[in-house]
Specification:
It is built from 15 helices and 20 strands. The chain is an alpha/beta fold.
């Protein structure tokens, strides 16, 4: 099997990568296991040194890495550079904080003490998507490696070049050989990797369908799994919000990376009393976003990553229109080479893909609702629960409503985002487990309890 990387801007082949043989996969996992046995006993200071070396290497290769991202999946170059810088920052964050995140806890008992000691598990298998080709890799790998584990990663087929470049940079550090490696494999080989006794846990960021399949396989083999899946994230604007600012941020939150973001704003729910003001401001922001060649610094919306993804957005739009949604901005497939899609905005329509499914591209629904209760109710009427954004000038109200929203993360007066400092993850069909922050550092550890009696 040959994996192809297609430039979504011009539909030309960037590179071809042969799938690994089973023998090569065996060599990779064996090497990772040996690296783990050496790495697990390294001190936090030694691990931190390696993470800083990786961060420096990422900094030095910033333009090259950003170029890979833009060529392989079409992200505008300014956003690709931001992704690379964020990835280097994550390495430095865990270099600084992993010792405290992974510190042992002592509990006093009537007859002695108990210690809770986070210990590394072994070789962790990471399955990553294409929408953030560098950030998605480091988001799982760096906290996991900081905890003393080794990682093997299966990147999405269309962004293998980005992954292999990152791992080449990792190999320049003082880490043991084989600590972080890439697997170019198909689904059948992936199932065999999950079954391998040397793989102790796995993590996947991907679709609801992929999460269900991988979760079932992990469960069959009794392997721990962390799943960060799809979302239908609400962007909720109350009547007392700064409407102009909310509209400006909503446009970015929906259309950055051509809408191909797990925690993007996907349903915009607006208090009816301010919906006209919001819509005027929102459409003006969308109209001002430049669409085109993602290598240009002033382009905000590049092509979608693949042609089938663009076709799916158009199908969802057509279905919504047929079901009665009102079109306020009809973009759609753009003529010429590349997988470009002009942003579309609809209003209303209860039984449409925009309310029932994940919309992973440059299209969005705006839903005016009469009451605060209705805004929260509709926000929660989804099988997903990844993140939400809530806009109001009343901080006390925000704190109360944030607890009513069914999501793993709620962001008040700012857009949803991932950050090394706090945990990210969802509920319901958006997955389970957490990445990033202290919790992410501990996900792939054994919290071993050691009880010491005071009686000898």
């Amino acid at each position: 099997m040959i994996f192809k990387s297609i430039n979504p801007t011009n539909e030309q082949t960037v590179a071809e990568y042969p799938a690994m043989t089973d023998a090569e996969v065996e060599t990779t996992i064996s090497s990772a296991q040996r690296a783990f046995l050496a790495w697990r006993n390294r001190s936090f200071d030694e691990r931190a040194k390696v993470l800083r070396q990786v961060a420096d290497a990422i900094d030095d290769a910033e333009q090259e890495l950003a170029g890979f991202i833009t060529r392989e999946m079409g992200k505008p170059i300014s956003q690709s550079i931001a992704e690379v810088r964020k990835s280097a920052g994550l390495c430095r964050h865990y270099a600084e904080h992993s010792a405290s995140y992974l510190a042992s806890q002592t509990i006093d008992l009537p007859d002695g003490q108990a210690m809770v000691v986070p210990e590394p598990l072994g070789v962790v298998y990471s399955i990553t998507p294409w929408n953030f080709p560098i950030w998605q890799l480091v988001r799982l790998a760096i906290p996991t490696i900081a905890a003393g584990n080794a990682v093997v990663v299966k990147p999405a087929p269309n962004v293998i070049g980005s992954a292999e470049k990152l791992i080449e940079l990792f190999k320049r550090s003082d880490a043991p050989e084989g600590l972080y490696q890439c697997l170019r494999i198909d689904h059948g080989q992936s199932d065999r990797v999950i079954a391998d006794d040397r793989i102790v846990a796995l993590g996947l960021t991907g679709s609801e369908r992929a999460g269900s399949a991988v979760g079932a396989s992990a469960g069959h083999h009794l392997k721990k799994v962390v799943l960060e899946l799809g979302g239908s994230d609400p962007f909720i604007v109350l009547a007392d919000a700064d409407v102009q600012r909310a509209a400006k941020v909503a446009a970015v939150a929906r259309f950055q990376n051509a809408g191909q973001v797990c925690i993007a704003a996907k349903r915009i729910l607006v208090a009816e009393s301010v919906s006209s003001e919001f819509m005027d401001a929102f459409l003006a922001e969308v109209d001002a976003m430049k669409i085109g060649d993602p290598t240009l610094a002033d382009v905000f919306i590049g092509p979608m990553a693949r042609g089938d993804l663009r076709d799916e957005i158009e199908r969802q739009m057509s279905t919504a229109i047929t079901a009665g949604a009102r079109v306020v901005r009809r973009g759609g497939t753009m003529h010429g080479p590349g997988f470009f899609y002009d942003p579309s905005v609809i209003v209303g329509g209860d039984n449409t893909p925009f309310m029932n499914d994940e919309i992973f591209g440059p299209a969005v629904v705006v839903v005016p609702l009469a009451t605060e209760e209705a805004l929260i109710r509709v926000a929660n009427e989804t099988r997903f629960g990844l993140s939400a954004s809530l806009w109001t000038s009343d901080q006390e109200r925000a704190a109360n409503l944030a607890r009513q929203i069914e999501a793993g993360c709620v962001f008040v007066n700012t857009m949803s985002r991932s950050d090394a400092a706090f945990p990210l993850g969802g509920i319901k069909r958006s997955g389970f487990g957490r990445e990033l922050g202290r919790e992410g550092a501990r996900e792939y550890t054994n919290l071993k309890t050691i009880v010491m009696s005071s009686t000898v």
